[in-house]
Structures are given as structure tokens and as C-alpha cells.
Design brief:
- This protein has 130 residues and is of the alpha+beta class.
- The protein is built from two helices and seven strands; from the N terminus they run βββαββββα.
- A four-stranded mixed beta sheet has the order 2-3-5-6, with no helix packed on it.
- The termini are far apart.
Length: 130
């Protein structure tokens, strides 16, 4: 699933496209807890852009972590270079499969034990021990 492009902002201002790439788009989407970027573009799209400052420029990300990216808050851009970003709607979820498996096994074991105890109780009653 995807949604339309949104104006990328930083501290209430726009983000310039100098050095922007697909990798940077993915990093930003992931930082916002989306699965990935599905596209980006630049230019004027909304009238309100002209009323905003340009607060971020020259973003450079060498890996998939925003904390390792560099950027400057001083720009040499116009609003024709504002970034519009589209991220996938699918949220990223992190979970430990081994914990999920153990939890499932515990529940399954509990169900089997409950059925076994119930069956054993019926057998004992049938044999006249209860």
C-alpha cells in the first residue's frame, strides 16, 4: 500500500534536494517507522511551501541509519528544490521469532496437558477410581 507524496519537513521547514537519493529516502521513511520509500520528487506542490523556511540541506547517508547521516541546516536552495516523499504504509515490526515459537509451544503444551488430564480423569472415573 502507498499514499501520495507529502512535503518532507524538518523542524517546521522544508528539506532541499541537494544530494538527495533513493537511499536517503529509504532511511528517512524507516526513521519514521515505515517499511521503505516508494518514491520521491521535488519542486513546488503546495502554496504554503513559499511561506516556510528551508531547514535542511546536503543530506548524506552512507548506510541505513539516520543516526549516521550528515546534513547541514544552512542551505543554498530555493523552494523549487523542496523534497516530496512517499513511504509505504506498511509499518516495520521487529520481533524475536524464538520468543514467538516458545510462546506458541507453551500454549500448545498447556492445551495438550489440559486435554490429557481431562481424558485421564474420565478414564479414572470409568474405571471406578473416582
Amino acid at each position: 500500500m502507498r499514499f501520495g507524496p507529502g512535503l518532507l519537513t524538518y523542524n517546521g521547514g522544508t528539506v532541499c534536494d541537494d544530494g538527495f537519493s533513493d537511499n536517503i529516502a529509504d532511511v528517512i521513511c524507516k526513521e519514521m517507522n515505515y517499511a521503505r520509500s516508494t518514491g520521491w520528487g521535488n519542486g513546488p506542490m503546495f502554496e504554503m511551501q513559499e511561506d516556510l523556511d528551508i531547514n535542511l540541506d546536503d543530506i548524506d547517508c552512507q548506510d541505513q541509519s539516520w543516526s549516521n547521516c550528515t546534513y547541514t541546516e544552512v542551505h543554498n536552495c530555493g523552494h523549487s528544490e523542496d523534497i516530496h516523499l512517499t513511504c509505504s504504509r506498511g509499518k516495520r515490526f521487529k520481533f524475536d521469532v524464538s520468543n514467538l515459537l516458545m510462546e506458541h509451544m507453551a500454549k500448545s503444551t498447556q492445551r495438550v496437558a489440559t486435554k490429557l488430564i481431562t481424558w485421564f480423569g474420565k478414564l479414572m472415573k470409568y474405571l471406578g477410581y473416582f
